[in-house]
Protein: 3-methyl-2-oxobutanoate hydroxymethyltransferase
Organism: Sphingopyxis flava
Amino acid sequence: MKRLTVPRIRQRKGGEPLVMLTAYTVRMAQLLDPHCDMLLVGDSLAQVIYGLPHTVGVTMDMMSLHGAAVVRGSYHAAVIVDMPFGSYEGSPQQAFDNAARLLKETGAAAVKLEGGKVLAPTIEFLTQRGIPVMGHVGLTPQAVNILGGYGVRGKSEEEARSIVDDALAVAQAGAFSIVIEGVLESIAVEITNKVACPTIGIGASAQCDGQVLVTDDMLGMFERVPKFVKRYQDMASIVSGAVKEYADQVRSRSFPTEDQIYAG
Ligand code: KIV
Ligand code: NA
């Protein structure tokens, strides 16, 4: 099966909703790939894989290694790699150098970066030089030290306006798609109606052109998840149950049995 391309994703505006999930490892990428249009190697790997308090600590090396693993584990979905905090905000040139490195080292189709109006010249710079960019507006977790937390964005009229303006600037700069995270629904709908590229919602609206979730959240790997996460499985209980059974059997010498040993 041919991999979905950025132009084909762009053409899905207003059409069949785009399905995106995060992936960080090869086996999970293989399992998600048949069902997804896009796999996002999110910098949420900070919390999911590395136990970091937030995404600010993520490095280029982490994104590159996990990005390459996800590309190796997928055949159908377009792979998008998050640019880590500090790798793109300094200047368009810095962003280009790091985005080019990520595409070269991983084989991914595109990068994603957080930000609005201020980052628009950078998005334009990358796009004009062969690097497709997915935008990310609203709740932007890399700004946690400015925002002070992960609360819903756009509650004041002024903040709502600036999020819409951010999305318009990002779209105008050439982003092929925009993630809208953690905003009042009316803002997500307004952006979706106004921009020409597909919007991907997370804590946004069913009217977005697609949806994304952190895979480990929707699988129920974590106790605490944001309101916008729907848990489709309780993986934590499944894993705990299996591991408890194994531990009990080792302690009672009921594992291994003759099925698992080489009788000699
Ligand atoms: O890092 C991430 O997982 C993300 C998605 C939640 C959009 O940016
Ligand atoms: Na991210």
In short: The chain has two domains: 6-233, 234-264. The longest strand covers residues 133-138. The chain has a mean pLDDT of 98. The chain is about 40% helix and 15% strand.
